Amino acid sequence: QLISVLVQAPVPAAETEAAAAAAECVHDCSTTASPRLLAQPIPSDPGFTRTRRAHLWQAEMSDSDEDAYVSYGERPEWDDVTPVPQAESTNPVVRIAYANQYVDTMNYFRAVYATGEKSARVLALTEEAISQNGANYTVWHQRWEVVLALGSDIATELSYVEAMALDNPKNYQVWNHMRLCTEQLGASAARRNLEYISLALGADSKNYHAWSHRQWVVRTFKLWVEDMEFTAAMIDADVRNNSAW
């Protein structure tokens, strides 16, 4: 009887609108996180405009286009590499349904990882692998090793990981990579870090990953006073923000 009453009870208009918004969010999340980020209010930051964020999203969508993807076996610059498939048992209980692109990319990644190759093409390969699975910590680690081996411009690498942090704001590997870049660049990158952390917190003010990285930046570069002001403002905006406390 109780179930019958609950089912027949009228739903307030506000709850209906909230449910519709939630459904739309679920739809957005099932395709890509970027449109949701585009809709978020962006704190004042002359170095990162809504237009630039839209550009990143469009580039991401273009890169993920199935029709535009060329398998590594069809790329002449990879002719000398024999792909290494993932080791599987003879009769796996549940085989993971990886996307074809990801299988192809990781087969070549395993090959160059095994040989220890550190080159520009491997750097590009790690970027493609990360775009397909941003939480692959082995790929992130190898990317950093390649960056150091090639003597790549760390400021450029920081720009890359900043964009990734806004698109994958709850990803441990992204924030760790940003820390590695910042350690190399030193104090000159500290305030730049805080700006991008603020952007990530603009999307989710309780993002523990972003707060943890912010704590490291503040502690490492002794930015206690100004960050006290920022944190106080965040608590004023939401006194229940446990991450800010």
Short characterization:
With 245 residues, this protein is mainly alpha-helical. It is built from twelve helices and no strands.
Weakly predicted, low-confidence segments: 1-9, 14-55
Structure summary, number of beta strands = 0
Elements, N to C (H/E): HHHHHHHHHHHH
* Helix-and-strand structural type: mainly alpha
Mean pLDDT: 81
Distance between the amino and carboxyl termini: 45 Å
Work out the strand percent.
Answer: under 5%
Question: Number of helix segments?
Answer: 12
Q: Mind summarizing the main beta sheet?
A: none
Percent in helix:
55-70%
Radius of gyration: 22 Å
Verbal overview:
It is a single chain. The chain has 245 residues and is an all-alpha fold. It has helices spanning 2-8, 13-31, 34-39, 50-63, 100-115, 120-132, 137-150, 154-167, 172-185, 190-203, 208-221, 224-237. α7 (137-150) packs parallel to α9 and α10 (190-203) packs antiparallel against α11 (208-221).
